[in-house]
Amino acid sequence: MNILKTTTHSARFLQKRGISALKSRVVSNKPTARLYSTSHEAPKEGSNVPWAIGSLLVFGPILFKLTSPPPSKKKAAIEQHVEQENKTEEPVEVAVPVVKKVQKPYVLVGAGTASFAAAQAIKEKDPQANVIIIGEESYSPYMRPPLSKELWFSEDPNVAETLVFKDWSGSERNTVYQDISKYEVIKDASGSDLETEKIKLLLNKSVSKLNVEDHTVTLNDGSVIYYNKVLLATGGTPKKLPSQTEDSNVTTFRNIKDFQKLDKIAKDGAHIAVVGGGFLGSELAVALAHRSGKENLKVTQIFPEEGNMANVFPGYLTKWTTSRVRKIGVDVKDKSTVKSVSTDKETGKAVIHLGNDETLSVDHVIVAIGIEPRIDLAKEAGLEIDEKRSGVVVNAELEARTDVYAAGDMVSFHDVQLGRRRIEHHDQ
């Protein structure tokens, strides 16, 4: 297009020059130089010479292109080869199998309420989290309060096996939080790397060592689990009487097996003594008294305080509580201490020796005088211990050390309103 414009402009320019020269010659009658002519004659008016030149310039290249022979096959091949080399090669995608790595687990030491609640909270926040609950018992996490309360009010003769009860609102519930089929049950530490969406459950195992520097827990079989974060919820060990020895007639009440054992004993007019006037002792005394109407039981409660729940309630409320317990049939021996318990070889019964030289013969003795927080694991790991309250010291977020937490009966926590405290209780 640029060539066409230039050629047209040139042709017009030459035409104008020719006309101007002709006019000059006529006026001056002087000879002038001939334009674009080899003849001695002057160019005639209306000549097509300039237009022919312009057309040649415009259409010449086109005619040359159309009439020129095709390129040789060799040259075409070379051009094609060069064109292919100049092309950019596209990368070829190769499918690589994705290997999913199981993350380090959240290890929850203890299979009680605290660990179960923690596991649920972790899974709610991160459904893919690797969570392991380690418990010494053969049961999955369960509630302890029904063992001394609601289960004793069930009309089901097989309640010790089903562990199903009705709460105070009439709703049917199970002492075990959820069926064991809802967990991924593993047998040893090697299961910590198992990929599963379920909460992992390692039963009949205990943790013998915690290494906060290496982020490891060592099981009682010597195997090791590397943790992401660890929660110590080891609870407590039932306290024993000062002179208490291993005796089949004496039970320190704490777990499901203790409930099942007492359920078999509390029948056919048995005489059962409950030592302890706190929450657990008073609850058991009342529960057994409720069954006495059906099984003709005799229940005696022994404690050194002035009344039931004296360490918790004010004096006037303690007196009222004690009177209510006596009213339902419990023989309450307040201000009494147990010096020792022995077994009568002739009768096979337990003989309780009281501080006032009184003796009491019963079929079975239940010791419910509180618990000692299980802090040995934490203490050996170098965690801070509250000597006054006998618990692992944690902050308001239940953190004892980086990536190490503690909860439940064995923790001394900071309450923003009441200060530092330790509680052996939870609301169901």
TrEMBL record:
Swiss-Prot/TrEMBL keywords: FAD, Flavoprotein, Oxidoreductase
Signal peptide range: none
FAD/NAD(P)-binding domain span: 106-421
Domain of life from the UniProt record: Eukaryota
InterPro entries linked: FAD-oxidoreductase/Apoptosis (IPR050446), FAD/NAD-bd_sf (IPR036188), FAD/NAD-binding_dom (IPR023753)
Entries under Gene3D superfamilies matching the protein: FAD/NAD(P)-binding domain
Protein name: FAD/NAD(P)-binding domain-containing protein
